């Protein structure tokens, strides 16, 4: 095992079918391959602790800026961000760097990782979802379920994201302020603030009307925040928002995989204060999404991390790395 501070990190430009991706790479190319897929609104940089930690432990680590983000291409057509294109990018990377791989995804990246395990299990040793558990395609789509839940006049950010240009007007107006608020509000520290003062939760826009807390969350340095602010000031948020604009299309495309199981070894890593699976602290093990996941994964391990919200791998990097390394040791033995 190497010292993480001695790990050489480099970036590469990889041209895949129809898209070019900037990829952060670390480790030895003859080691087991691990692909890290980020979510919204993030970058490969969100895996900075895992890139060095996993490479130091003997893995070949590949983390792309996913399509629509950072220095990777940002196709104009909304349909170029559907689940087939997103999975195709990961499959292309695995082909480029050498199968088999373990794919680890966070947030939207978790949804892409789970779909990769459905479509191409032959390329994978294992799959890990961080923050977002596995949920098979069911009889109703995510937008349909949300509309049933909130009613005709209710607000939900995924519905708010659907109309091109609407969310951009809010998020692109001040990318620095947007990222400060987003990284605050879904973290364990931000969720504690909302639990103490429910009026802090957004009700008619993604960011909400109340001012963001000053400073940064304890887990985020000034340099880390600058990396996010610089990237989204340059690109805006349309690329990531287009992922959401394919939710209904993805449900249509994935009709053949309805109720599909995950047959390869799988793991879920979640923060106990993550709003995806909890709004009020300790979730125990009985959240409906976790119960559903357990029914559809043949070989599943679950790790819930105290004191972590939605930005699990950034808020609690040591605990996240420990869970990942335990799973990788099993699937790459």
Structure write-up:
It is a single chain. The protein is an alpha/beta fold and about 325 residues long. The chain has two domains: about 5-140 and about 260-330, Alpha/Beta hydrolase fold, catalytic domain (Rossmann fold), CATH 3.40.50.1820; about 140-245, no CATH class. Helix content is about 40%, strand content about 15%. The chain has 14 helices and eight strands. It has helices spanning about 50-55, 85-95, 110-120, 140-150, 155-160, 165-170, 175-185, 190-195, 220-235, 240-245, 245-255, 290-295, 310-315, 315-330; strands at about 10-15, 20-25, 35, 60-65, 100-105, 125-130, 265-270, 300-305. Strands 1-2-4-3-5-6-7-8 form an eight-stranded mixed β-sheet, sandwiched between helices. α7 packs across α9. The longest helix has 15 residues, at about 85-95. The radius of gyration is 19 Å and the shape is globular. It starts with 8 loop residues before the first strand and ends with a helix. The mean pLDDT is about 95.
